[in-house]
Design brief:
The structure is a homotrimer.
Chain A (H helix, E strand, L loop, with lengths): L11 H11 L7 H8 L34 H20 L14 E3 L2 E16 L2 E8 L5 E7 L4 E7 L8 E3 L23 E6 L5 E6 L4 H6 L3 E7 L11 E8 L6 E2 L10 E3 L4 E8 L5 E5 L4 E6 L2 E9 L1 E4 L4 E7 L4 E7 L6 E2 L2 E2 L3 E6 L1
Parallel strand pairs in A: 2-5, 4-9, 10-13, 12-22
Antiparallel strand pairs in A: 1-2, 2-3, 5-7, 6-8, 8-9, 10-11, 13-18, 14-17, 14-19, 15-16, 15-18, 19-22, 20-21
């Protein structure tokens, strides 16, 4: 509350951000973005911060040759510069590419039909890091597929990679020959060929799709995405105002949330009182305990299945392959850090990195 | 469903397996095995696929010198060969030795009495890998001890190793001097000597026994087994048709399930509609999230204790020392992969390995 | 029960300890300590084994140059010597320094006011290992702050380190500008300066405070402590007789419980029938499954939030950032090992080390 040695305004950054975003700017504003998002179809998933189209890629402050040899003042300077980039990213993306956007579909004789292409792509993880990725439709995570419990789905998969692949519908009770395990349920999809999967979605909830062929490598490098199955009866799930993905990976480009590392991770925005649904999914190879500051996680589903009794916590540990769904009521205004609490996945002498983002409550 | 570029029969492998096993063969068949198993005493634990006595040990396809340099076609070929070996293993074991078989006992003045010998042994993990193990009675996991809550038990332990050891009854509330912690509750059992443990089992449920002396090494190398305590009132636990172990280790011979690595892991078999009980136990040093395709885990006990409310999931994370019990209703026919979702414990450029098995539903 | 080859008295160590502690001795006795502790204010946290003031620092038996080359007899000897040191530690501390002691406060105009100084200190982890730590008030964990839900708190933080820092109140729903995230909610506290945090505690339960600046390093090296928030209505939590901390770290000085490694970890003491409350907190960077012998954990809160239904277990996995609260009823007399079940965090060829302690039930 008081600080007799600091000349800067403590607690001022979020106010500066609030002023900045309320003033609008190139591409829109964080909070305006939240308002705009409210006009989306109820329950739609939107990767936060799609505002801004220019997406420059200016570098973050240069890393020192030896972070462990940084002076404390240099560490502070680097730490501040990264936070500034993160806040800038809230209104004007600092990297190219947005992962996990919802994929459009068309109805073919009563079947919701999607098209996925497995393709090599360059993917920008942070302003300083662009990697060679294996992708669905060029983005990481791949496009989000939204389907409805009990309504048939078809997914046409074209393999434009240089290697074989398959797609597994992680969490779904499909017919065995649609399960995507090479040489067990199908032959892998050869380079240059196509394969069509068909299934009737269920159970409902937060699920995933990913490669099941040489998967430690292929999933790690980006062949992963979210598969969201709405319940046949929408009243089955808790009410929410925003639908947010929180997909973890720890292979491609290091520690990432929705394909990006801090400061390029997008903050999640909310109006005060909003009920935010988070869909945590781990597509990496390590356990990640995700900690939320200043707000409460009300966890209501595990692997899509409703928990018999929801529980509250501030740290939800997500193991590889697991999904957890939680409601966060945005009842405390401010910028709330939201990060992996294995601190070596989130903080370095140069400042925060990797699995760090925030919820910004108006 | 359609595939205009693949010449092979998609979804055909399980049909081939079904045809193969229905045709019978040397030692029996997967599905016939399931039927035979139904004749076992209700509630008995049987390591799956004990059918077949010849157990040849032919090598899997030769590994390349540098898996990362494999061509995609070579990767596919190697992947297929491993699956073929796994399916072969379902009807005719491809390695020597079966771990976790139930140990016979005799009644001595009202006390169920078991005999364990700690002994060095060679243990075949996969067709290509045989390791020096420390074992109980020559197998890994050691023999399964089945006891009843409240009915006294005696275990005579002979130490034929070159080093001292003790046995800890992990999960049991024994008298302190039977707890097996060296120099805290007893002196260790010297090479060439014996020690007799006595306790009245409780609580009921899925427990373990293992070395507590230099245990990172001794347990890692094989001194571990399952201790199954039936409740005094059988109605206390859910009903099930088959009782299956799923013991994890990540030291001896790499990533193993019941002492074997894929493709030598045994599939679990079921008739449609069977209720399968799985007893997950982690005797390794890493957390393993076990993912089941196409079916649902109904988790009803933790460390043997009934959960106040069972929950459903498809990925159950098992930390070292933990036990989890789940019912799987075999309501979806096919061959369902069942593996650790830390993909580097399950998939390599050469195909699946390590912590991978399957449930085969007739 | 019988052992026809051992000449030493099996099960005798605990009896020796019991005799030793019942006979009293320099500084008091384990069980007498438990009795004395009962005179403390109800619900107070006391790091076990504060009895004894001399605290000598004699070395443990010399480690061999190559533990893997130790003879079995040498392993046994080393193992026994470590247990002896641990039991000695129960009555006469074998290391200097006790972490996590409760911090005194004073009331300033209705605000419970604490003072913390961030300072470099030498910290003795085991008799053989003293490390350079970053500390609050010179101890690791830092002093425990006990506050009451809804009653305002002030914490004056002085930074006497050579680098900047901040304090985050992990688990608390503070106002955003008190959250302690550098450049997001405040500028970091520069060396030589002070900062005052103010908040009204909530939610109640077991929480933590720690650095949020270069935190992988600063928390790892000791800038961490427990923040215990009593509920406004004491009847909200289960009844207990003793209030025990179990704070995990895996950076500073290796694998530690409350800042110490075995054999310098303090055992927890209980009279038969006591209800012990354990507050598990992980400030490290790895998941630790904590296993209790011979007794049962009744887990009733997660991250401070009461669980809708408590559950029982013997192994509670604590991920970084998580807190779990459990009651242990001391209904089984003896010395019960209580350790991380990732065995490489607890056992070596030279005997037990790191994350091992015990509950001693009279």
């Amino acid at each position: 509350m008081n600080d007799d040695t600091q000349t800067d305004d403590p607690g001022g950054v979020d106010r500066r951000l609030f002023l900045a975003v309320m003033a609008g700017g190139a591409g829109g504003a964080v909070l305006a973005g939240a308002t705009a998002a409210a006009a989306w179809p109820r329950g739609s998933v939107h990767p936060p911060t799609e505002v801004g189209a220019s997406g420059h890629t200016g570098a973050t402050p240069p890393a020192t040759a030896d972070p462990l040899a940084m002076s404390p003042a240099a560490m502070d300077q680097s730490s501040k510069a990264r936070v500034d980039r993160f806040l800038e990213n809230a209104t004007s993306p600092i990297t190219q590419g947005v992962g996990g956007t919802e994929l459009e579909w068309r109805m073919e004789a009563g079947v919701r039909t999607f098209e996925l292409t497995c393709q090599n792509a360059r993917w920008q993880v942070t302003p300083d890091q662009t990697v060679d990725a294996l992708t669905y439709n060029g983005i990481v995570p791949g496009p989000t597929l939204r389907v409805v419990e009990g309504q048939p789905v078809r997914v046409r998969v074209r393999n434009d990679l240089d290697e074989s692949t398959t797609v597994h519908w992680h969490g779904q009770r499909v017919a065995n020959d649609q399960d995507g395990v090479p040489y067990v349920t199908q032959d892998p999809i050869q380079p240059g060929s196509e394969y069509t999967y068909e299934f009737t979605p269920g159970p409902f909830g937060s699920h995933m799709y990913h490669s099941h062929h040489n998967a430690a490598d292929q999933v790690g490098r980006g062949l992963l995405g979210a598969l969201l199955v709405e319940p046949a009866d929408p009243a089955t799930e808790p009410r929410y105002d925003e639908d947010y993905l929180y997909v973890l990976n720890d292979v491609l480009g290091g520690f990432t949330i929705n394909g990006k590392g801090f400061p390029a991770t997008a903050p999640y925005t909310a109006r005060r009182g909003d009920r935010l649904r988070f869909r945590f999914m781990n597509e990496g190879q390590m356990v990640h305990p995700i900690h939320l500051h200043g707000l409460t996680l009300e966890v209501f589903a595990r692997d899509g299945y409703p928990l018999p009794q929801p529980f509250r916590c501030d740290t939800i540990t997500v193991a590889p392959g697991e999904r957890w769904d939680a409601i966060v009521v945005a009842d405390n205004p401010g910028v709330w850090a939201f990060h992996c609490h294995i601190l070596s996945h989130a903080e370095s002498p140069e400042g925060m990195f990797g699995m760090v983002t925030a919820i910004i409550v108006e």
